[in-house]
Amino acid sequence: MRLSPMVLANAEEVLREILRFTAPADTTLSRFFKERQRLGGRERGAIAECVYAVLRNKAFFTDFSASGSGPDMRRLVLLGMMDAVGIGALPSLSPEESAWLERAANIDRKLLHKSMRSNMPKWLYEKLVAQYGEEEALALADALNTPAPLDLRVNAMKADRDAVMAELAQAPIAADPTPYAPLGLRVHKKPALQNLPLFKSGAIEVQDEGSQVLAQILGAKRGEMVVDFCAGAGGKTLALGAQMRNTGRLYAFDVSEKRLSKLKPRLARSGLSNVHPVLIAHERDAKIKRLAGKIDRVLVDAPCSGMGTLRRNPDVKWRQQEGAIAEMHDKQIAILDGASRLVKGGGRLVYATCSFLNEENDNVAAEFLASHPDFELVPMSKILAEQKIALEMGDYLKLLPHKHQTDGFFAAVFERKKMAKPAKEESDDAE
Ligand SMILES: C[S@@+](CC[C@H](N)C(=O)[O-])C[C@H]1O[C@@H](n2cnc3c(N)ncnc32)[C@H](O)[C@@H]1O
């Protein structure tokens, strides 16, 4: 069935705003839809898919659109809709527009020039090539320009993976176990899940497999004292609380009241009562000092460029400036230093990001080790063996979409040496 012409007009309007890159695309889209209650589910789906198709092919579409006619934004929308719903579903195309779209559809995008195929700002693509070499950089860029699958985590407090898979099949929703995360399911297609009894009862949460692996490698156990230092809306907190079987104490720190407030309803659904959300002012907050040297495991899921999530947020790369990466690096070092004070002798500290850039990953880990002789690196190969996760890694966890079908993630595990005394607290409360 063809879309109505007003869908194209709406797509043009929202795309124009999103391409200014002044706000995240998903925020702009949800505000736009909220203001247009008359748009139905199919129309919303087509507009959102069109916008994301343009973001994932911005370089190619911008270049190709120069060969078309009519207003710029209409040309981009037609190309986006071609990917989103197919040329046959587009209303009121002129014969020239149809022929033009057929030409675009027949272009093999793998044969485009690398600057167009990678669909990234030059500085970012150059960083990728420097890190991975050209061939792998292109494979990674291709994967980052492809939509992510929908992964679920089964809440072990409420269900097991096989039972959830069987219940989903009744819906009917087809899903397969994820290869690395023991409680993960990868759902075929993208069905709405919010109204499923499994979701309402807290038996499942939406979570990328890579994120699940990150929570797993902290190795949190029953009865332990654990801190999720950058808990945000609690994606990993929920996984950690369940891993601890709702025992011990799990502090969820964050500097954002708004993000922490999103954790509350998720906690209620999850059935966890061992989680204690704590709003902190910064990484040296006095609330943290009371716990210095007392914590078994600390997760620092640090604020980062978010480049590892480009499959979901393809606009991030166009909104970030290269200089922001260096600023991020300094912030990451400061947070990791603050969080390290919590760890007791023999305890573990995990530093993680959803980025694949060395500045935010290996470099931060190396600097931390160089300035904290009371910590040593625990090779990721050892951690993965402990957790029985079938992934081949060296010192660090480096998950990449073209290799592991997850978002891009990094993690390093540090252990505080047993003899080391808790960090002496300087009188720096007044900072
Ligand atoms: C990558 S996000 C965390 C995502 C979250 N762990 C999850 O799994 O959903 C990083 C978080 O760090 C928080 N943050 C930023 N600066 C911080 C600081 N100085 N101390 C603690 N948290 C901070 C941000 O508010 C943000 O929620």
TrEMBL record:
**UniProt-listed SUPFAM superfamilies:** S-adenosyl-L-methionine-dependent methyltransferases
User: Which keywords does this chain's UniProt record carry?
Assistant: Methyltransferase, RNA-binding, S-adenosyl-L-methionine, Transferase
Per the record, the similarity remark reads:
Belongs to the class I-like SAM-binding methyltransferase superfamily. RsmB/NOP family.
Instruction: Tell me which domain of life the UniProt entry assigns to the organism this sequence originates from.
Output: Bacteria
Q: What is this protein called?
A: SAM-dependent methyltransferase
Q: Which GO terms describe its biological process?
A: RNA methylation
Q: Which residues form the active site?
A: 354
